């Protein structure tokens, strides 16, 4: 199968993979909580080019007309969740191309002002799961593929986005990651999550997990709070066949350059993305299953909502994907903001936990990222 | 008194005024709901220079230790409120000075890179009131004075911030405004709020209210939602003795240039700020008093929390003051973020009100700002 697949354009390989992964992930959550409402499947078309499928879990608010038509669901495993894919193409404004040149040597010599807007293609899966139980962590994962093409061919609507005519590909790259955000720390959960990702990365170079783990800690950081969003995972961006500054800066692992030893061809990076993407369900679902039956108090629910306020702060103030989506004309805002929790809370000078409490324990680990697995 | 006051430096006049206004506003809210807990007064000192006083209203969460020590307050008029003043000084990084040059001719010829950081002074009052009742609107007001000085004298800590030695003032300006954000539209409330502000502005030029009203509609806008944050009020920035592009662009009012007819000296602008600041209590407190006794349902509370989600989106994504505060090292984050509501809610594709509902009514006015008073 691998040989057959590699004959297809990368665009199409990515589109097929993220569609399959989305189905598997949604099926895993639905199997975990059979009496809960199903995910709502919401297919959409982008007028400027492309399509998407949002799979969203929510329980109607008790006061809404929808709630009157079905039994009350106040004890579902999930509180709000979204597992979305999008495959879009269009024109990238010169300013955006300029910004991307820094990370892509193949774009460096491009006279952007002369060229004007350039065609782009982007395909990705993005998910955020907010469970109801404060002892069950929130999780986020995202894998995406990006192409910038020459102006030779114009994208047109109609056929499948990944099979549209395209110009010469000037640059391509992969990005993604997966990270865990608990309200209460369970060290065994953190170790399980990181171990699963480390093992999935193992066949792609000794440096891969350590580089992606460090990168994740650095990216999911809330400077104005002086704390991480969660207990980390993996993160990467701008991964292609050119030298990569983050991997290069990491130096050597086991006598080999971290940048040389990582996957570098598009096929090799896609293989890595698939291994990491396939690790999502085993990295998270067992944790969710175990923590969802833990009894909890009103005080623990309040703490969860305060921590969700911080999640909102990170996503709206710093997250590049969210901000890019909000500032893109024609973006599907409901999909961009599906990452926000159903409820969040802000208290002035709120008590973040006295020494020795379980609240202080998680604050401590957010302020000082730990190594969870070697 | 007016002649005596004008002998004082503008810094000191502003510091005195905002302190008095803060006391009056807090007193008005405390008088309105005598059985509620008092505002918490929280004085702070900024290590890099300056001080502040945060006056904050909150009811301890029922599950918190603080709640056990006092009777439950589940029916207060306010849910969360902050009335803050800050008087700070320090060094403005070259990048920030550069950004300000566009609006201030006196800074234009300054070679920022050569000069490096410049001393600044900023004094302001900032308030956000989130009432508990969904029929009572949220309100925001802010008045501030800013100075950029030459490098001649270094600010030192110790004495009152506004009385510290200063270099030559290179630029100064006032900014501010006040705006109303209802979850449910009461046309009479909107008319009362705007009428009170219009009347307070009346003696400062015929163009003042119309310019500041339009400016407010443009500033408090959430592009990704295609809607205003609320039903407006007034907004202004960079007001000094130089020509002002926003007033100039407005053209003539009653045969006179809007920019020529507005207050232009520091003394005249301060007088205007005082009249607008003093109008806060009469513009808002009568509305709050009337709406706080309206019975409300769970469905109306849900709607209020959804609208508060939008408020969070505006403040974290677009509000210049909030973003400036979040990105400023050493800023007092708890004061910067006191504008956020105690609770907010996000639903995927949430029902924003069917035609003819009271929810749709407010959505309509947010999408199409109205003239509330001539």
TrEMBL record, chains A, B:
Its EC number is 1.3.3.3. The keyword Oxidoreductase applies. Transmembrane segments: none annotated. Pathway: Porphyrin-containing compound metabolism; protoporphyrin-IX biosynthesis; protoporphyrinogen-IX from coproporphyrinogen-III (O2 route): step 1/1. This is coproporphyrinogen oxidase. InterPro entries: Coprogen_oxidase_aer (IPR001260), Coprogen_oxidase_aer_sf (IPR036406), Coprogen_oxidase_CS (IPR018375). Gene3D superfamilies: Coproporphyrinogen III oxidase, aerobic. It comes from Rhodofomes roseus. NCBIfam families: PRK05330.1 (NF003727). Belongs to the aerobic coproporphyrinogen-III oxidase family. Homodimer. Keywords: Oxidoreductase, Porphyrin biosynthesis. Coiled coil: none annotated. Signal peptide: none annotated. The keyword Oxidoreductase applies.
């Amino acid at each position: 199968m691998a040989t057959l697949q590699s004959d297809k354009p990368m665009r199409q390989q990515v589109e097929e993979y993220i569609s399959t992964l989305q189905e598997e992930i949604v099926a895993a959550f639905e199997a975990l909580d059979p009496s809960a409402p199903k995910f709502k499947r919401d297919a959409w078309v982008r007028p400027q080019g492309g399509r998407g499928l949002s799979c969203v879990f929510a329980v109607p608010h008790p006061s809404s007309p929808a709630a009157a038509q079905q039994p009350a669901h106040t004890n579902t495993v999930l509180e709000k969740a979204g597992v979305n894919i999008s495959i879009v193409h269009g024109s990238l404004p010169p300013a955006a191309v300029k910004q991307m040149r820094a990370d892509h040597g193949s774009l460096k010599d491009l006279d952007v002002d002369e060229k004007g807007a350039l065609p782009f293609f982007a395909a990705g899966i993005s998910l955020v799961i907010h469970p109801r139980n404060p002892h069950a962590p929130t999780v986020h994962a995202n894998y995406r593929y990006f192409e910038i093409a020459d102006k030779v061919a114009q994208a047109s609507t109609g056929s499948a986005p990944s099979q549209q005519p395209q110009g010469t590909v000037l640059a391509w790259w992969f990005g993604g990651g997966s990270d865990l955000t608990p309200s209460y720390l369970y060290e065994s959960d953190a170790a399980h999550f990181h171990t699963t990702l480390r093992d999935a990365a193992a066949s792609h170079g000794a440096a891969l997990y350590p580089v992606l783990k460090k990168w994740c800690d650095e990216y999911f950081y809330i400077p104005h709070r002086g704390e991480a969003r969660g207990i980390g995972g993996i993160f990467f961006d701008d991964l292609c066949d050119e030298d990569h500054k983050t991997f290069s800066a990491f130096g050597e692992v086991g006598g080999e350059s971290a940048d040389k030893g990582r996957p570098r061809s598009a096929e090799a990076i896609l293989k890595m993305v698939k291994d990491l993407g396939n690790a999502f369900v085993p990295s998270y679902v067992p944790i969710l299953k175990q923590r969802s039956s833990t009894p909890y108090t009103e005080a623990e629910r309040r703490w969860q909502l305060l921590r969700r306020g911080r999640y909102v702060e990170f996503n709206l103030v710093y997250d590049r994907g969210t901000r890019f989506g909000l500032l893109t004309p024609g973006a599907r805002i409901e999909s961009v903001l599906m990452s926000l929790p159903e409820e969040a809370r802000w208290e002035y000078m709120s008590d973040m936990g006295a020494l020795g409490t379980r609240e202080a324990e998680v604050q401590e680990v957010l302020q000082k990222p730990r190594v969870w697995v070697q």
